[in-house]
Structures are given as C-alpha cells and as structure tokens.
C-alpha cells in the first residue's frame, strides 16, 4: 500500500490543531493509502506543542517536529518535507482555510499520474482592497520573475515523491516556495475550491510582512531588478548628455544664464533617490549572498516524535 504524508506548519494554532485533525481524519478514511501526519510547531508561544504531544500519544500516525523558535513558514515547510516518508505529500495549513475534503480527489489525480496537484482558491469573501492589491501584485511580479506565479495558488498542494525530491534538491537559504513549486515543473493539475475564512485565531500576515514576502518573490528568482538599474542608468546618462548639449548651445547663442537653483536641486534630489534605490537593490542581492554563504541551518529542532 502507498503512503501519504500530510505536512502541516503550525504557529500559535492551539485553537485549531485539534479541529484540523478531526476534520482531516474524516476524509483520510476515503484514501486507499497509509496516512501519516507531520505537524511542525514553528516555535509557537501558546499550547500548540502540548496539543501535538497529546495527539501523537493517541494516534501513532501523528508525528510532530517542534522548532526551538519561530523560523517562519518556509522553514516549517522544508522541515516537513524533509521528514515526510510518503510516496506523496500534501502541504496544508492548520487553520482549515485549506479544506482537507479536497485531499481524496488530490490523491485520485496523483494515482492518475500527476506529480503536482494544486488547489487554487477563488477570492470570494475577501476584502476588496486586499483582493485588488494581490491582483496588482501578481500582474507586476509575473512581469519580473522567470517562473509563472498564479493568483489564488498558495501552498496547498500534493506533490509526488519525484516532485518532492526535486524540490529538496534546492538547498537555498532564502526559500520562496511559490516560485520553487513553479520552477520544478512536472505534470501539474489544478483544482479549484471556494475561499474559506480562518476558523479561529488570527492570520500571521501583517501588511509589512506581506510587503516583505512580495519583495522576496521578486528578488529571489532572478536578477531583473539589476537589469532595470543598468537600463535606467543608461537612460539617465543619455538624457544628461542631451541636457548638457542644449545648455552648451544656449551658452554660445545667448551667453551665460544665471538662474539654475531649481534645476540643480531637482537633479540632486532625483538622482540621489534613484541612486539610493539601486544601491538598495544591489544591497539586497549582496545580503542574500551573505546569508547563503553562511550556510546556517534553516531551522533548529527542540523536540520531535
Ligand atoms: N505559519 C507558520 N509559521 C509562521 C507563520 C505561519 O508555520 O511563522 C503557519 C500557520 O500556523 C498556518 C499557515 O502557516 O498553518 C498559514 O498561516 P496564516 O493562516 O497565518 O496565513 P494566511 O492563511 O493568512 O495566508
Ligand atoms: Mg490562514
């Protein structure tokens, strides 16, 4: 019999882990496979770990890994994937925003031969502003990155062993799963589901962390921002030359022209801004190189079962 591993990152999910487990159990019976649960406690400060210990005592198919502190969802995903022993894995959130009822049909597609079965949510019930902003972000990011990133496609998906091993071969420190999933390719199938609101607790995303996440998406997949810097540099230099030429011609035709305060100040401010912006971009890349070269572990385990 084949084995299915369910990987669930949890950060402060004391209110949801039990509900998740009960809900998931209902549907696991429908799958003709041995199921193992791998919960990753990403350094929760509440009673998540206690709940997981209890679950693991009751049910031998429940395993957990507990981090020494909060390392972020990407690290939790990586740990779960590394510890999964199944022929396929499902990555799913603990807050039931990813309905476990989809897992049996994901499994069916896996049996049909798909390597990635992706669950895509529509955005019904979400705030208008957030919907619009995400929409814009995806339009923008797809212009910038080499891989295609689709709106509504999150981390909820099934991966075959082959796809999973491919993913694990990418050992980079700065992980941007959305991009990595798309980068590996393989035979993909997308299924849709209705947007679910979180059952308990709150989302861990603040506007700032979303912004940072967006930045990661752009910067961790290619060097287009650096290209943009080069082209803007060329453009600005070109206009600079033209301006100098015009000024010179003026000088020979009409003599010295004194007022120049406004043009000088605007040039300083504008060019200063552009230079800082691109220095920042270069800095981001250097920072990434810095983190990669340190080769630090992506997470530290405090306890596991
Ligand atoms: N999560 C995690 N580490 C973190 C933040 C979140 O493991 O640092 C988990 C969280 O417990 C949940 C999933 O990642 O199972 C998605 O988090 P959340 O619901 O906050 O994000 P959203 O659904 O709003 O995108
Ligand atoms: Mg959520």
UniProtKB/TrEMBL annotation:
Keyword Glycosyltransferase: no
Keyword Membrane: yes
InterPro entries linked: Glyco_trans_2-like, Glycosyltransferase_2, Nucleotide-diphossugar_trans
Pfam families for the chain: Glycos_transf_2 (PF00535)
Keywords assigned: Membrane, Transmembrane, Transmembrane helix
Superkingdom, natural source: Bacteria
CDD domains, sorted: DPM1_like_bac
Record-annotated membrane-spanning stretches: 228-253, 265-286
Residue intervals of the Glycosyltransferase 2-like domain: 5-167
Matching PANTHER family: GLYCOSYLTRANSFERASE CSBB-RELATED, UNDECAPRENYL-PHOSPHATE 4-DEOXY-4-FORMAMIDO-L-ARABINOSE TRANSFERASE-RELATED
Protein name per Swiss-Prot or TrEMBL: Glycosyltransferase involved in cell wall biosynthesis
């Amino acid at each position: 019999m084949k084995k299915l591993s369910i990987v669930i990152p949890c950060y402060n999910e004391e209110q949801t882990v039990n509900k998740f487990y009960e809900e998931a159990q209902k549907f696991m019976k429908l799958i003709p496979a041995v199921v193992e649960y791998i919960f990753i406690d990403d350094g929760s400060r509440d009673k998540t770990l206690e709940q997981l210990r209890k679950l693991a005592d009751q049910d031998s198919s429940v395993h957990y890994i507990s981090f020494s502190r909060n390392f972020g969802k990407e690290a939790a995903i990586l740990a779960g994937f590394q510890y999964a022993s199944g022929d396929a894995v499902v990555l799913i959130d603990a807050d039931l925003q990813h309905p476990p009822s989809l897992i049996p049909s994901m499994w069916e597609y896996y049996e049909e031969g798909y390597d990635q079965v992706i669950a895509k949510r529509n955005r019904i019930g979400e705030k208008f502003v957030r919907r619009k902003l995400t929409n814009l972000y995806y339009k923008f990011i797809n212009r910038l990155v080499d891989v295609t990133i689709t709106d509504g496609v999150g981390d909820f998906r099934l991966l075959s062993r082959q796809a999973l091993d491919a993913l694990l071969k990418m050992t980079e420190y700065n992980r941007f799963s959305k991009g990595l999933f798309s980068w590996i390719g393989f035979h993909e199938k997308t299924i849709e589901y209705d947007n679910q609101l979180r059952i308990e607790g709150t989302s861990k995303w603040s506007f700032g962390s979303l912004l940072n996440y967006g930045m990661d998406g752009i910067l961790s997949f290619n060097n287009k921002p650096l290209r943009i810097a080069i082209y803007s540099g060329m453009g600005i230099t070109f206009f600079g030359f033209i301006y100098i030429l015009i000024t010179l011609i003026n000088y020979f035709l009409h003599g010295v022209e004194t007022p120049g305060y406004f043009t000088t100040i605007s040039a300083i401010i504008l060019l200063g801004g552009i230079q800082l912006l691109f220095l920042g971009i270069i800095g981001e890349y250097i920072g990434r190189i810095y983190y990669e070269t340190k080769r630090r572990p992506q997470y530290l385990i405090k306890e596991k079962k």
